[in-house]
Protein backbone atom coordinates (compact mmCIF):
# COMPACT_ATOMS: atom_id res chain seq x y z
CA UNK A 1 0.00 0.00 0.00
CA UNK A 2 1.08 3.56 -0.62
CA UNK A 3 1.74 5.96 2.20
CA UNK A 4 -1.19 8.39 2.19
CA UNK A 5 1.05 11.06 3.69
CA UNK A 6 3.92 10.45 1.29
CA UNK A 7 4.81 12.39 -1.84
CA UNK A 8 5.23 10.95 -5.29
CA UNK A 9 8.79 10.73 -6.57
CA UNK A 10 7.52 11.39 -10.10
CA UNK A 11 6.03 14.51 -11.71
CA UNK A 12 2.45 13.76 -10.65
CA UNK A 13 0.92 13.60 -7.18
CA UNK A 14 -2.65 13.00 -8.35
CA UNK A 15 -3.92 11.66 -11.68
CA UNK A 16 -7.27 10.85 -13.25
CA UNK A 17 -7.23 7.69 -15.37
CA UNK A 18 -9.92 7.39 -18.06
CA UNK A 19 -10.63 3.79 -19.04
CA UNK A 20 -13.04 2.83 -21.79
CA UNK A 21 -15.33 -0.10 -21.19
CA UNK A 22 -13.81 -1.70 -24.29
CA UNK A 23 -10.45 -1.75 -22.49
CA UNK A 24 -11.85 -4.53 -20.28
CA UNK A 25 -12.92 -6.72 -23.21
CA UNK A 26 -9.52 -8.19 -23.97
CA UNK A 27 -10.12 -11.06 -26.39
CA UNK A 28 -13.76 -11.39 -25.40
CA UNK A 29 -16.64 -10.23 -27.57
CA UNK A 30 -18.69 -8.99 -24.62
CA UNK A 31 -18.25 -8.23 -20.94
CA UNK A 32 -15.02 -8.38 -18.96
CA UNK A 33 -11.87 -10.43 -19.54
CA UNK A 34 -10.65 -11.38 -16.03
CA UNK A 35 -7.01 -11.45 -17.16
CA UNK A 36 -7.17 -7.92 -18.56
CA UNK A 37 -9.00 -6.69 -15.46
CA UNK A 38 -6.32 -8.15 -13.20
CA UNK A 39 -3.48 -6.62 -15.25
CA UNK A 40 -5.06 -3.17 -15.14
CA UNK A 41 -5.63 -3.53 -11.38
CA UNK A 42 -1.98 -4.54 -10.89
CA UNK A 43 -0.75 -1.44 -12.72
CA UNK A 44 -3.05 0.78 -10.65
CA UNK A 45 -1.75 -0.89 -7.49
CA UNK A 46 1.82 -0.25 -8.61
CA UNK A 47 0.96 3.43 -9.06
CA UNK A 48 -0.46 3.48 -5.53
CA UNK A 49 2.84 2.09 -4.29
CA UNK A 50 4.56 5.11 -5.85
CA UNK A 51 2.46 7.34 -3.54
CA UNK A 52 0.46 8.68 -6.48
CA UNK A 53 -3.20 9.43 -5.75
CA UNK A 54 -5.40 7.96 -8.48
CA UNK A 55 -8.98 8.50 -9.52
CA UNK A 56 -10.55 6.40 -12.28
CA UNK A 57 -13.45 7.09 -14.63
CA UNK A 58 -14.58 4.01 -16.50
CA UNK A 59 -16.92 3.64 -19.45
CA UNK A 60 -19.49 0.95 -20.13
CA UNK A 61 -19.15 0.23 -23.84
CA UNK A 62 -18.19 -3.41 -23.23
CA UNK A 63 -21.68 -4.01 -21.81
CA UNK A 64 -24.01 -1.36 -23.19
CA UNK A 65 -23.70 1.82 -25.23
CA UNK A 66 -26.73 4.08 -24.96
CA UNK A 67 -25.98 6.16 -28.05
CA UNK A 68 -25.93 3.04 -30.21
CA UNK A 69 -29.43 1.90 -29.31
CA UNK A 70 -30.67 5.49 -29.49
CA UNK A 71 -29.70 5.45 -33.15
CA UNK A 72 -31.79 2.29 -33.53
CA UNK A 73 -34.85 3.99 -32.07
CA UNK A 74 -34.57 3.70 -28.27
CA UNK A 75 -35.26 6.83 -26.24
CA UNK A 76 -31.87 8.50 -25.82
CA UNK A 77 -32.34 9.34 -22.14
CA UNK A 78 -33.32 5.75 -21.34
CA UNK A 79 -30.35 4.43 -23.32
CA UNK A 80 -27.93 6.75 -21.56
CA UNK A 81 -29.27 5.73 -18.14
CA UNK A 82 -28.70 2.08 -19.08
CA UNK A 83 -25.16 2.99 -20.18
CA UNK A 84 -24.53 4.65 -16.82
CA UNK A 85 -25.53 1.43 -15.05
CA UNK A 86 -23.05 -0.47 -17.23
CA UNK A 87 -20.25 1.79 -15.93
CA UNK A 88 -21.27 0.91 -12.37
CA UNK A 89 -20.86 -2.79 -13.18
CA UNK A 90 -17.35 -2.13 -14.51
CA UNK A 91 -16.47 0.05 -11.53
CA UNK A 92 -17.50 -2.67 -9.07
CA UNK A 93 -15.46 -5.23 -11.01
CA UNK A 94 -12.38 -2.99 -10.86
CA UNK A 95 -12.89 -2.34 -7.15
CA UNK A 96 -13.05 -6.08 -6.50
CA UNK A 97 -9.91 -6.73 -8.57
CA UNK A 98 -8.01 -4.06 -6.64
CA UNK A 99 -9.14 -5.37 -3.27
CA UNK A 100 -8.04 -8.88 -4.21
CA UNK A 101 -4.55 -7.41 -4.69
CA UNK A 102 -4.62 -5.78 -1.26
CA UNK A 103 -5.43 -2.25 -2.41
CA UNK A 104 -8.14 -0.06 -0.96
CA UNK A 105 -10.71 1.27 -3.41
CA UNK A 106 -14.00 3.14 -3.30
CA UNK A 107 -16.71 3.36 -5.94
CA UNK A 108 -18.52 6.70 -6.05
CA UNK A 109 -21.55 6.92 -8.30
CA UNK A 110 -23.19 9.98 -9.84
CA UNK A 111 -26.45 8.01 -9.49
CA UNK A 112 -27.70 7.01 -6.06
CA UNK A 113 -27.17 3.25 -5.61
CA UNK A 114 -26.59 3.08 -1.87
CA UNK A 115 -26.46 -0.70 -1.61
CA UNK A 116 -23.44 -0.89 -3.91
CA UNK A 117 -21.62 2.44 -3.95
CA UNK A 118 -21.18 5.79 -2.29
CA UNK A 119 -22.77 8.92 -3.72
CA UNK A 120 -20.29 11.16 -5.50
CA UNK A 121 -19.46 14.05 -3.19
CA UNK A 122 -16.41 16.06 -4.21
CA UNK A 123 -14.98 16.67 -0.74
CA UNK A 124 -15.41 13.03 0.23
CA UNK A 125 -13.73 11.95 -3.00
CA UNK A 126 -10.75 14.19 -2.32
CA UNK A 127 -10.50 12.78 1.19
CA UNK A 128 -10.45 9.22 -0.17
CA UNK A 129 -7.61 10.21 -2.49
CA UNK A 130 -5.67 11.87 0.33
CA UNK A 131 -5.95 8.64 2.32
CA UNK A 132 -4.40 6.68 -0.55
CA UNK A 133 -7.59 4.98 -1.76
CA UNK A 134 -8.22 4.40 -5.45
CA UNK A 135 -11.41 6.33 -6.12
CA UNK A 136 -13.51 4.97 -9.00
CA UNK A 137 -16.08 7.37 -10.40
CA UNK A 138 -19.08 5.57 -11.92
CA UNK A 139 -22.26 6.57 -13.80
CA UNK A 140 -20.58 9.32 -15.81
CA UNK A 141 -21.84 12.77 -14.85
CA UNK A 142 -25.23 11.35 -13.86
CA UNK A 143 -26.81 13.13 -16.82
CA UNK A 144 -27.86 11.88 -20.26
CA UNK A 145 -26.19 13.25 -23.40
CA UNK A 146 -22.79 13.50 -21.70
CA UNK A 147 -20.05 10.98 -22.44
CA UNK A 148 -17.69 9.38 -19.94
CA UNK A 149 -14.93 11.44 -21.62
CA UNK A 150 -16.71 14.56 -20.39
CA UNK A 151 -17.18 12.92 -16.99
CA UNK A 152 -13.44 12.23 -16.84
CA UNK A 153 -12.60 15.85 -17.63
CA UNK A 154 -15.11 17.07 -15.06
CA UNK A 155 -13.92 14.78 -12.26
CA UNK A 156 -10.25 15.51 -13.03
CA UNK A 157 -10.90 19.24 -12.71
CA UNK A 158 -13.00 18.82 -9.57
CA UNK A 159 -10.35 16.78 -7.73
CA UNK A 160 -7.50 19.05 -8.93
CA UNK A 161 -5.70 16.26 -10.77
CA UNK A 162 -2.28 17.10 -12.21
CA UNK A 163 -3.12 15.33 -15.47
CA UNK A 164 -5.88 13.37 -17.19
CA UNK A 165 -4.52 10.08 -18.54
CA UNK A 166 -6.56 8.58 -21.41
CA UNK A 167 -6.00 4.87 -22.00
CA UNK A 168 -6.50 3.65 -25.57
CA UNK A 169 -5.54 0.73 -27.81
CA UNK A 170 -3.14 2.79 -29.95
CA UNK A 171 0.18 4.49 -29.20
CA UNK A 172 -1.23 8.00 -28.87
CA UNK A 173 -2.87 10.66 -31.03
CA UNK A 174 -2.49 10.20 -34.80
CA UNK A 175 -3.18 12.55 -37.71
CA UNK A 176 -5.68 9.95 -38.97
CA UNK A 177 -6.84 6.47 -38.11
CA UNK A 178 -3.62 4.37 -37.98
CA UNK A 179 -5.62 1.18 -38.59
CA UNK A 180 -6.91 2.51 -41.92
CA UNK A 181 -3.90 4.65 -42.88
CA UNK A 182 -0.39 3.25 -42.46
CA UNK A 183 1.06 6.72 -43.14
CA UNK A 184 -0.76 8.31 -40.21
CA UNK A 185 1.54 10.55 -38.15
CA UNK A 186 1.91 10.00 -34.42
CA UNK A 187 2.04 13.27 -32.49
CA UNK A 188 4.35 13.49 -29.48
CA UNK A 189 2.70 16.77 -28.45
CA UNK A 190 -0.40 18.48 -29.79
CA UNK A 191 -2.37 21.52 -28.66
CA UNK A 192 -6.00 21.54 -27.60
CA UNK A 193 -6.86 23.88 -30.48
CA UNK A 194 -5.21 21.53 -32.99
CA UNK A 195 -7.22 18.62 -31.62
CA UNK A 196 -10.41 20.61 -32.14
CA UNK A 197 -9.58 22.16 -35.52
CA UNK A 198 -8.23 18.94 -37.04
CA UNK A 199 -10.94 16.82 -35.39
CA UNK A 200 -8.38 14.42 -34.00
CA UNK A 201 -9.89 11.42 -32.26
CA UNK A 202 -8.79 12.07 -28.67
CA UNK A 203 -11.90 12.78 -26.60
CA UNK A 204 -15.18 14.48 -27.43
CA UNK A 205 -15.10 18.24 -28.01
CA UNK A 206 -16.78 19.09 -24.70
CA UNK A 207 -14.09 17.26 -22.74
CA UNK A 208 -11.29 18.89 -24.76
CA UNK A 209 -12.69 22.39 -24.24
CA UNK A 210 -13.09 21.78 -20.49
CA UNK A 211 -9.47 20.64 -20.20
CA UNK A 212 -8.22 23.54 -22.32
CA UNK A 213 -10.13 26.17 -20.35
CA UNK A 214 -8.92 24.72 -17.04
CA UNK A 215 -5.32 24.15 -18.20
CA UNK A 216 -5.52 20.42 -17.52
CA UNK A 217 -3.08 18.45 -19.72
CA UNK A 218 -4.10 15.12 -21.24
CA UNK A 219 -1.75 12.22 -21.88
CA UNK A 220 -3.00 9.60 -24.38
CA UNK A 221 -1.23 6.23 -24.30
CA UNK A 222 -1.55 2.56 -25.24
CA UNK A 223 -2.97 0.58 -22.33
CA UNK A 224 -2.10 -2.74 -23.98
CA UNK A 225 1.64 -1.96 -23.62
CA UNK A 226 2.66 -3.60 -20.37
CA UNK A 227 3.75 -1.24 -17.57
CA UNK A 228 3.15 1.79 -19.83
CA UNK A 229 0.93 3.44 -17.22
CA UNK A 230 3.52 3.03 -14.46
CA UNK A 231 6.32 4.36 -16.67
CA UNK A 232 4.15 7.31 -17.68
CA UNK A 233 3.48 8.21 -14.07
CA UNK A 234 7.22 8.04 -13.38
CA UNK A 235 7.76 10.72 -16.01
CA UNK A 236 8.60 8.81 -19.20
CA UNK A 237 7.53 10.51 -22.43
CA UNK A 238 4.95 7.91 -23.48
CA UNK A 239 2.15 8.44 -25.98
CA UNK A 240 0.91 11.93 -26.82
CA UNK A 241 0.69 14.97 -24.58
CA UNK A 242 -2.24 17.30 -25.28
CA UNK A 243 -1.61 20.70 -23.76
CA UNK A 244 -1.53 24.46 -24.38
Question: Could you explain how this protein is built, in words?
Answer:
This protein is of the alpha/beta class. The protein has a single domain, classed as 3-Layer(aba) Sandwich (Carbamate kinase). Helix content is 36%, strand content 19%. The protein is built from eight helices and eleven strands. Strands 4-3-5-2-1-6-10-11-9 form a nine-stranded mixed beta sheet, with helices on both faces. A two-stranded antiparallel sheet has the order 7-8. Helix 1 crosses helix 3. The longest helix has 25 residues. It starts with 13 loop residues before the first strand and ends with a strand. The mean pLDDT is 92.
Backbone shape: globular
Low-confidence stretches: none
Quick check: average pLDDT? 92
Computed Rg: 17 Å
Can you count the helices?
8
Span of the ends, CA to CA = 35 Å
Major sheet size, sense and barrel closure: 9 strands, mixed
What percent of residues are in strands? 15-25%
Q: Report the CATH architecture.
A: 3-Layer(aba) Sandwich
Helix proportion range:
25-40%
How many domains? The number is 1
Structural class: alpha/beta
Corresponding CATH superfamily = Acetylglutamate kinase-like
What string, H for helix and E for strand, traces the elements in order?
Answer: EHEHHEEHEHEEEEHHEHE
